[in-house]
């Protein structure tokens, strides 16, 4: 059963639709380290699952926000590569 008091600590799913600037995320990291500009969306979806007893249907908005974020990030990376911009 979801806990209403805990759900207030979850961000709005739409707050995590846009990925963070991946170039800033890569700064200070070794090239082989995994960087996820959609980490906030990922964590929010996992937290939602924990708070809703792993009821996937209760967290669909968070899953969609994560997918949108990832798609935007991948598209941005493709665009940068096509235009000769790198993550350096």
TrEMBL record:
Ranges for region Disordered: 1-33
SUPFAM superfamilies: Cysteine alpha-hairpin motif
Polar residues: compositionally biased ranges: 1-11
GO cellular component, one term: mitochondrial intermembrane space
Spans through the membrane: none
Main localization of the protein described in the UniProt heading: mitochondrion
GO biological process: one example: mitochondrial respiratory chain complex assembly
InterPro entries referenced in this protein's UniProt entry, alphabetically: COX23, Cys_alpha_HP_mot_SF
Localization terms from the record: Mitochondrion intermembrane space
Keywords of the record: Disulfide bond, Mitochondrion
Keyword Mitochondrion: yes
Physiological role: Required for the assembly of cytochrome c oxidase.
Stated name of the protein: Cytochrome c oxidase-assembly factor COX23, mitochondrial
Source organism (scientific name): Favolaschia claudopus
Upper classification of the organism: Eukaryota, Fungi, Dikarya, Basidiomycota, Agaricomycotina
